[in-house]
């Protein structure tokens, strides 16, 4: 997998963990190892600009996803073909506020948002209740599997 991480936010984050999460999520969702994913971390001003430009909504948001080749999750017999998955843009400052409210670390919130953004890149959405159940259930599976994998890695 080709995953590029560019931190322009001015906030120190565990980029290696985000990279491992990206690798895990794409493998879990059976995306081609030749797929490309970009993760960009930006400050609130840059995120607000993107939020207004692309969603026509004011203020910064936590995560934006920009799919490129409209790739979808693969199956055991047929992984997703190679291609450009797209870009995930995260705002650590917004994630920090949300993390405090949720009672976990900013890093945990960024990992949740990265998993969420990855699912959006693969065509998942949460506009309808059944879509929300599917997407958030898969998001939980990815994060749970990743954290189990991380525990094994540390042993």
TrEMBL record:
GO cellular component: cytoplasm
Major localisation: cytoplasm
GO biological process: rRNA processing
A molecular function GO annotation: metalloendopeptidase activity
Cofactors, names only: Zn(2+)
Annotated compartments: Cytoplasm
Ligand binding (Zn(2+)): 116, 120, 126
Record text on cofactor binding: Binds 1 zinc ion.
Keyword terms of this UniProt record: Cytoplasm, Endonuclease, Hydrolase, Metal-binding, Nuclease, Ribosome biogenesis, rRNA processing, Zinc
UniProt-listed Enzyme Commission number(s): 3.1.-.-
Pfam families for the chain: YbeY
NCBIfam families: rRNA maturation RNase YbeY
Function: Single strand-specific metallo-endoribonuclease involved in late-stage 70S ribosome quality control and in maturation of the 3' terminus of the 16S rRNA.
PANTHER family xref list: ENDORIBONUCLEASE YBEY, CHLOROPLASTIC
Stated family: Belongs to the endoribonuclease YbeY family.
Name of the protein described by the UniProt record: Endoribonuclease YbeY
């Amino acid at each position: 997998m080709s995953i590029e991480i560019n931190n322009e936010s001015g906030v120190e984050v565990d980029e290696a963990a985000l990279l491992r999460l990206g690798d895990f999520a794409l493998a879990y969702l059976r995306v081609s190892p030749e797929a490309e994913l970009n993760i960009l971390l930006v400050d609130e001003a840059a995120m607000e600009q993107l939020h207004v430009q692309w969603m026509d909504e004011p203020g910064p948001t936590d995560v934006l996803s920009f799919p490129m080749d409209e790739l979808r999750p693969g199956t055991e017999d047929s992984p997703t073909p190679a291609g450009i998955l797209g870009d995930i843009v995260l705002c650590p400052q917004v994630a920090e506020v949300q993390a405090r409210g949720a009672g976990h670390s900013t890093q945990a919130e960024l990992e949740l948002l990265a998993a969420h953004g990855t699912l959006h890149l693969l065509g998942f959405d949460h506009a309808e209740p059944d879509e929300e159940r599917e997407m958030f259930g898969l998001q939980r599976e990815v994060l749970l599997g990743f954290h189990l994998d991380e525990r094994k890695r540390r042993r």
